[in-house]
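Thread amino acids onto this structure.
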């Protein structure tokens, strides 16, 4: 079975960006994004494809090279949609702690 290349570790990405910008917040501001956006993009798959692309460009790599688990074999991003419906249902008329409302 062929193994996929692991990509870059989150700390490697952070270190490379900190060397260039001084902090992840400064990197985000230079991209015109909120201060936590770069950190969230690094840590949470599907947070922002635009910022993933910007980080990849800064690091002179493709986003697929940095995060191979977030992309398919053709370099297309995988879907990371979450259903709020499953989290909202408990199946009973009681609270999560078992006490009636």
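Threaded sequence (101 positions):
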């Amino acid at each position: 079975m062929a193994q996929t290349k692991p990509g870059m570790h989150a700390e490697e990405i952070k270190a490379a960006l900190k060397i260039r910008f001084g902090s992840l917040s400064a990197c985000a501001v230079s991209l015109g994004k909120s201060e936590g956006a770069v950190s969230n993009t690094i840590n949470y798959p599907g947070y922002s494809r635009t910022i993933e692309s910007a980080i990849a460009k800064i690091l002179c790599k493709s986003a697929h090279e940095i995060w191979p688990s977030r992309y398919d074999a053709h370099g297309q991003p995988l879907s990371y949609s979450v259903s709020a419906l499953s989290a909202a249902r408990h199946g009973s008329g009681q609270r999560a702690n078992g006490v009636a409302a």
